[in-house]
Specification:
It is built from ten helices and 16 strands. It is an alpha/beta fold and 379 residues long. The chain has two domains: 92 residues, Roll (Urease, subunit C, domain 1), CATH 2.30.40.10; 285 residues, TIM Barrel (Alpha-Beta Barrel), CATH 3.20.20. The strands form two sheets. Strands 1, 2, 3, 4, 5, 14, 15 and 16 form an eight-stranded mixed β-sheet that branches.
Length: 379
Amino acid sequence: MLLIKNATVYTMEEDAARQNCDILLKDGKIADIGCNLSADGAEVIDASGMVATPGLIDAHVHAGGFLGGDLNEKTDPITPHISALHAIDIHADDFTAIHKAGVTTCCFIPGSANVVCGTGFVAKTAGKTNLHDLVILDPAVMKCAMGGNPKGYGKRGKAPETRMGVAALLRGALKKAQDYLAKKEAAGGDKDKLPPYDAKCEALIPVLRREIPLKVHCEQFDMLTVIEVAKEFGCDYTIEHGWACDLYADELVEGGGTVCFGPISIAEGYGELTGGDVHNVKVLDDRGLNVCLITDGPICGPQILLISAGDAVRYGIDHMRALRMITVNPARALRVENRVGSLKPGKDADVVLWSGVPALDTSARPLYTIIEGKIVYQD
């Protein structure tokens, strides 16, 4: 057991902080939150002067696999059947840095070299020695990519070479899977009527059944293509990066998918990046769209998540709204809000103790990172 005493607590279940508040962690879960809590035999942290929040959540990372080139399978533009789970080394430096920045949960995904890139998973960032023991949802998303990245196949004389080709290949993969699923359902339990097994189509069935979303790398007007394709096939989706999203606010709000914005700190003109300032999400947040901030790690380090939230505040986004973009909003987008994203009895005991109010106090830094009730980092 671990008892945190006398903290200023942002539960993210409420609109304001609780002062001089205690949090009791037991068996990997939050057991209680309140004043003057006690527990026999518990390890106690006197958090006077500290600020407690849920562990931060990064909805878009490649850490542990990207630097070695293991998250881009560049031999085929359509690879829904491969998984980022088989490419992540939790002992890599970029992975082990994550929890030290107060980030306790991430969605690990393939890179964006392909049109359909493969499945991603949600996992904790420390506390176990085996990656599979860190996983809390797999598969969680189907990573896809629009725009310049998959157009790279054209240099090798393969489709796609244009945005037209990218859109056509995405539609083609979903249509093939749709037809495959229809044949499977029509066959019922008759094995003789089943279509020949197709691993790619099988991997896309959870997308068509809205069990996992398309998680699509795109920016500028590519976002409109994603909305159109998702509507055509009845899929859920999240917009990844979403640079210049303010130009398409009406369409994005109507479409209803989450926008995972970022990272900031990338130079204008890098790749196809324009419109990368975090103030571009304010209009979407004001209109009720679910917005997350991301690092694209290791493109940017994990500390950029907190810096992004602080930048949002600098641009006039309410402090609590900015904190939601790195806690409860990504939890909702990743469909793991029953476990992480806020401090509430019964949820996972993922807590970060800060030296100041994160995203508001520019000097705030993690003093303790706690995952499932265990201290995994102490400043």
